[in-house]
Known about the structure:
heterodimer, A: alpha+beta, four-stranded antiparallel β-sheet, 4 helices, 23% strand, B: alpha+beta, seven-stranded antiparallel β-sheet, six-stranded antiparallel β-sheet, 14 helices, 20 strands, 46% helix
Amino acid sequence: MGASRRLDPRIRYKWIATAAVSALISAVVVGFVTQLVASETAVLSEDPTVAYGVSEVAVQVGAVALMVFLVVGVGRAVLYYRSWRYEVREDSLYLTRGVLTRRQTVAPYVRVQHIDTQRSPFDRLLGLSSLVVYTAGTRGADVTIPGLTYDRAATLQTRLKRLAIATEEEDAV
Amino acid sequence: MSDEGASGGGTRPDDSESAGDETAVDDPGGGKGNAAAADDAEPAGGEAALSDVLDGPRKLHPLTIPYRFVQQGAGLVVILVFTGLPGSIGAFGPLGGVLALLGIVALAGLVVGYYVAYHRRFEYELTRDTFDIRSGVFSRREREIPLRRIQNVDISQNVVQRALGLAQVNLKTAGGGQTEAQLQYVGEDEADRVQSEVSRLRRLGADTENGEATERTAETVFEITERELGVLAVVSTDFRVLSLLFFGASLFGPSAFSFLEEELFASPDSVVGLVLGPIAGILSVIAIGVVTGLFRATRYYGFKLDRGEEELRYQRGLLQKYSGTIPLSKVQTLTVRENVLARKLGYAALFIETAGQAGAQAESSGSQSAIPLAERDRVRDLARSIEPADLDAFERPPRRARQRYAVRYALVLVALSGLLYLGTLAIDVLAYWYLPLVGLVAVPYAAHLKWKHRGYAVGEDHVVTRNGFWVRQTKVVPFHRVQTTFSTETIFQRNRDLGTVVVDTAGSRSLSGNDPKAVDVDAGTMNDVRETVVDRLYAALDRRRRERRRSR
């Protein structure tokens, strides 16, 4: 109890994969937009040789965009993993995470309504799951700990439930 | 003194809410329980009053039938007469017309017959623990709603209903959010009776668990004056129209001016038209704003607030009348709201956010207007009587926060100018694209104002936050209502060593806009406040637990 814990390193693969996919999609979009803009400009300039180079330009721009998005996305995924910490404190669950915008959350045990574990197909592939703590506040799902191994998630879930039940029912709202 | 289970609710004495109980039962066998409950109501001791309340099932008001027919059926009949009749006369001659007429009369008769049958089959009954409704012509529906689940009983009447002496009763559960059941329509007196009897029975049920029966007559704590209503109308005008005017001026100004130069010497008519045109435009924009303000005022005409044992009861409305209750034991947050005009005039509004009890997971919350507008002192007095927080002791964010706002506003103005400039390039229209840059002069003052109206205070029993210049909201959250606390630092805030703390409650309506937050405070303070609020939450819960034990 009380120690500052990190997420399982395997979650990085999930975040990197997600970043790669969205980088690819964004690069394709950028390529298309460049194609559109370039062909318009080519039409306006009325120079036949320019029209030939339009698709080449688009591909080049798309490739550059892909590199940039990949570097940024993967970098962000790694840094985000490094920033994640959670603590099972005496009275509350404490989370801190974030690269550009840092967020901290303090969820008092007395307010916990129920605790879910969730596993997406990708999570299952990596052997991970997320823990979601619900309170009566509207931001209930903001208390989510991703990247926990299945065992760790189950243990944490049981522990938090016990800590939450230890408080009187009337105090829950 | 809990019921033997003759009612469908089956509530345990200490249960704050029978979560998830489905009380709508579709099989006709459910009727037996209610008859038994009515028979069990023996006059005894403090419950002698119950026998005249539990006097058996009642029906809706007979005028409901013609009213509903006119409201729903008449339109259809009229359409049929006007389209079907000429059609069939054209197709089949006068005989066809007669047949069509007979058909329409038969149809109307069927519709009326249905309403009559529905009326005869509709019964509602107030028992000791439940509100029962039995209805339905073809498919019967029997509902037993435990009185404990009913949060508010609202009464509404539109103009026609008022003329006929009818009213609609809405039974709302879980913080006033959802309408569980409706009585369409009963007499006005009957509606009042239902409202007060439900309240009384609930209180009686709750009190007999504590071993005593108390009753406190409601006292009127607030009645809106004509003057306040007038101020409400003025103050409610939507000021966003002004920004539209500005934007329009920068776009259309130059073309208007060029017209002026050309036509000015051409003829006097055009000058008049030119001057009147824009003035008419401005006036109509203002008129729209004023009309929306007036609408708001009519909805709050005759606003009256009574304070009962555990609740505030309000009535309001000119054309359409509303009445309802705000349960005081479920208050999550109080908000004192003043827009800039109201502030200058010394007026404010009070809003109360409530939520359902244990088991409700934020689907049941409501924010109700406790006072739509009143002199600031009256509002503060009522707020303090509900939650005694100090509304004046504020700590402001550090001065360097003003730099953030100054930069933000400057960027917005520059971006707007840039957009307009790009627009002129693309569309080849002359516009005063640099007009927004004129606003840069006002930016430092605006930043200062925004900072000036920000503040927070961590008090004895409450955390109070205040934000906003155009609409300033002062939010009071008692510690024992705090759910989770969050803090965020964007990269721009980190630059200046600032941060924001958000206090989440069960009554928070929207996801981000309406939470109590201490914005742009010093980063160290942010960490302190975030932890202190949770510590105080536990301290407050401990205190309340001890008080409850002592009073048992």
